[in-house]
Automatic annotation (TrEMBL):
GO terms for molecular function: isomerase activity; oxidoreductase activity. Gene3D superfamilies: Glutaredoxin. Residues 24-226 form the DSBA-like thioredoxin domain. Keywords: Isomerase. CDD domains: DsbA_FrnE. This is Putative DsbA family dithiol-disulfide isomerase. It comes from the Bacteria. Residues 1-12 have a biased composition (Low complexity).
């Protein structure tokens, strides 16, 4: 996957009563291995930037494969080989590389036990969690469940367990999962916004509705991008330079004349 940094196209921005804060909007899929790695790298870059208390982070829905059936009977290796048309040995190399990269940020991927699952219902549940201010907690829980714990993240009972684990009311979560229309439009709106940006791969980060960062970049790249964007939003005040000679003041002109 190639990565780049580029200006993002204008989209509707959310209202924020505090104009001094900066937004970071992240499009990702819980079935995307680089999205979990990118999440960790972004979090480290945010920490290194020292701006965590000044930035609002919001996750948005994206599906790598909307056509994936409700129940896929096969391994991740089988799925990738059939979809990408790659040799199985090549797929094995790819998965090993991703597993190694995940380990560098403290993640323990287990592709052997991974359950290939359509992520749409999980995205609906994530929007419900966002409405309860628990979106970040559920995002982390779902990613770990999918890549590290071998859980079926499209199974209704599993989703309810994970919702409860993330701090959501189980009964309310079960109601959302059972109602196929619940938060469906919110998910589709995220898809539409991603299309408006021209996003063709995830993770994708939009900083202050101005800059786009594509891919699981190193933490240093996120730190630099965040610092640059924040500096542009909050220009440093002028620093007055003292005259070389303390015996003379610099002559100036003003509305009342010159001195």
């Amino acid at each position: 996957m190639t990565s780049s940094t580029s200006p993002a196209s204008p989209v509707t921005t959310r209202e924020d009563s505090n104009e001094q804060r900066m937004s970071v909007d992240i499009w990702s899929d819980i079935a995307c291995p680089w999205c979990f790695i990118g999440k960790r790298r972004f979090e480290e870059g945010l920490k290194e930037s020292g701006l965590a208390d000044s930035i609002d982070v919001t996750y948005h829905s994206y599906q790598l494969d909307p056509t994936l059936p409700e129940h896929y009977h096969g391994t991740e290796k089988d799925y990738l080989a059939s979809v990408k048309g790659l040799d199985v040995s090549r797929v094995e190399q790819m998965l090993e590389h991703v597993t190694q990269q995940a380990a560098t940020v403290g993640l323990k991927y287990d592709f052997g036990n991974l359950k290939v699952a359509n992520s749409f219902n999980a995205h609906r549940l994530l929007h419900f969690a966002k409405s309860q201010q628990l979106g970040a907690q559920l995002k982390e829980t779902l990613l770990s469940a999918h890549f590290e714990r071998g859980l079926n993240t499209n199974d209704a009972s599993v989703l309810a367990d994970l919702a409860e684990e993330a701090g959501l009311d189980r009964a309310a979560a079960e109601a959302v999962i059972a109602d196929e229309d619940a938060y469906r439009q919110d998910v589709l709106q995220d898809f539409a916004q991603a299309q408006a940006y021209g996003i063709q791969g995830v993770p994708f980060f939009v900083i202050d509705n101005k800059y786009g960062v594509s891919g699981a970049q190193p933490s240093e790249a996120f730190q630099q991008a965040l610092t640059q964007a924040f500096g542009e939003k909050h220009p440093a005040p002028l620093t007055m330079v003292s005259p070389a000679s303390k015996t003379e003041d610099g002559a100036v002109c003003g509305p009342e004349g010159c001195n």
